[in-house]
Amino acid sequence: MTDIVFSESDRLEIGADEYRLRRERVFRLLAEREIDALCVFGPTRVAYLSGFFFSPTERPIALILTANGQVAALLPNLELSHFQQQGPKLDDSAIYPEYPGGGSGRHPLLFLRDLLSRLGVLGKVIAADVDGYEHRWGYRGPALSAVLEQPVQADVALIDDLRMVKSAAEIALMTEACRWGDHAHRLMQDSIRVGSEELLISHGASLQATRDLLAELGGRYVPKAREGLPANAMFIRGANTAHPHGLHESGAVGVGDVLVTGAYGVVGGYESELERTMIVGEPNAEFQRYFAAMLAAQQVGFDALRPGRTCAEVESDVRRFIRDELGMDDLVRHHTGHGFGLEGHEHPFLDLDDHTVIEPGMVFSVEPGLYVPEFAGFRHSDTVVITESGMERLSLYSRELDDLVVAG
């Protein structure tokens, strides 16, 4: 799909030049829309534009971009050195002592108001991804529009639309993430035995895959989070799989259990997705029927993906096949897939009500599922990238039943 952009000695992360180009796209967008400044609160959007990855807490952080090319930030004091280590040079900043005030007697968003005033945009046209900081970890705060005493054009699409089509570097990172998701899944599948505990097998495989990743990549691997592992795998079992997002259960794997798995890697902050439906012991006729139906529906999804079509048209093809060819429309619980990159789910969605036009460079999961109450769920998920003529799988784990049987 794309030329390899990382050499065997490169650190596996987006470089400063690409972050600068992203900000320049925003500057042009602001000028086109006659917006004087944009305040970005969403942690993933801040990272996308600046390279500053952080652990979001109750302390508001905002990146400010102005139409005349200025870059500024609202930061708590405890993140200042962290931003200086990762982020771009700032034209101005507002550093507050602590939330809710740290003795200053002032809410952090009042510091942001002062910053916007110094930038010369207060009272002018201001936009934001959301109208103020999100309420997490006990944070309480007013809307940005209330603090500024003026309207704010709140629109997550201002940044998220730019994130839909991935660059060559992003696709390279996601390809590497897929490789490690596949590896984690292989370790997990090879470890499952009758009597295994799903939690212990899941976490054990994730830890071993992470050891393997770090041993191979060494200093090229750049963690972008405080939590989680670079390579992960898990599964749920039995009738619990009839819940698309069933939680782990205690107890042991048994003969006849259907397993629905999930595995992913995280490289340079970018994620992958791999899911498989498996069986412990010889599959009976009922299992084989639903497995074959699910596999055929996923293939319809693969075949439907190409530039110029809409996400809704892809979903329509899959749903029509499930309804008219399989007669299983009542077993559908969710749409066919979603975009992703820095987040596990991103806009757009392969959904009947998403009319986004598909373009080369978009990355999707393809995961139509069939869920049989009191029996099992059936879902494969693969990471795919849109090419000039169709799509290409980045997750390469086998989809075939013969390769997904665990010895009973």
From TrEMBL:
Residues 173-388 form the Peptidase M24 domain. Residues 22-165 form the Creatinase N-terminal domain. InterPro entries: Creatin/AminoP/Spt16_N (IPR029149), Creatinase/aminopeptidase-like (IPR036005), Creatinase_N (IPR000587), Pept_M24 (IPR000994), Peptidase_M24B (IPR050659). This is Cobalt dependent X-Pro dipeptidase.
